[in-house]
Amino acid sequence: MLFLRSKGIVISKTDVEEADRYITVFMEEFGKVSVFVKGIRKSKKRDKTAVDILSETDFLFHMKNENIILSDFFSIDNYKNIKKDIEKLNVALYIFSVLNQVLVENGKNRGMYTLLEKTLRYLDKTEDMRKNYLLIVYFLYQIIKDEGIDTGKNVDFFIEEINKKVSILAKEILKSLFDEKLKRIIDDEKYEFTFIKEVILLLEFYINKNLDIGINAEKMLWGAWIW
After folding, report:
1. Are 28 and 6 in contact (CB under 8 A)?
2. pTM of full prediction above 0.90
3. 37, 20 Cβ separation under 8 angstroms
4. Is the pLDDT assigned to residue 215 strictly greater than 50?
5. What mean pLDDT, rounded, does the chain reach?
């Protein structure tokens, strides 16, 4: 029997019956995969946090009829600072929602995995929510690039494509983003939350339009989202 190993981040979970759990894991080596974890919720020996949402875990497994059969797993990081802060948690869950809709099953994407890993580590440490929302801006833009969605790297082209009214400061944020100079926005507090939120919604609209999906920042970041 050939055993495989990969670290992965749990991006969704569904508890079933009294003891079992289905998880969706974004693995560094194998992409997005679905895994059944039998008996985990009643186990007194296995690390339950390692297969909970928002955990980075080292997985040991083998394949059987194209299904992943777990042999063992060990927690690497469970991002405690994110889990205890509702605003940070909403940011992380929003990003997971984006990935769950964009990533294809078994589609390896190491670059996106590395981006997610860095994003969660940054989010776990920072206390500046303005910067955390700019982190979402950057993440959404990387999704657009990774999916090959055309922006022309031009703000006017982008605005024409979305056919929406854009404020001056939101346009400046977009220009800095397309020019790979977002740091100047991070360091300038005149770009307040209102304009950052506007940019998030514009990028989200563009992704939804081009990929025919339904990510929803209004609900998950600023609505009555309950985890």
Report:
1. yes
2. yes
3. yes
4. yes
5. 92
Rounded-to-integer distance, Cα 175 and Cα 137, Å: 12
The CA dihedral of 212, 224, 57, 15, to the nearest 10 degrees, is -90
Amino acid sitting at position 102:
V
Contact by Cβ (8 Å): 58, 73: yes
The predicted pLDDT at position 227 comes to 39
Q: Which helix (H) or strand (E) holds 91?
A: helix 86-102
The residue behind tokens 């055309």 is 150
Return the amino acid letter for 104: V
The amino acid occupying position 71 is: S
Kindly state the helix (H) or strand (E) to which residue 43 belongs, with its residue range.
none
Spatial contact of 161 and 178, defined as CB atoms under 8 Å apart = no
Q: pLDDT tens for residues 39-73? A: 888 887 787 899 999 999 999 998 888 888 888 99
Nearest to 178 by CA among 160, 203, 161: 203
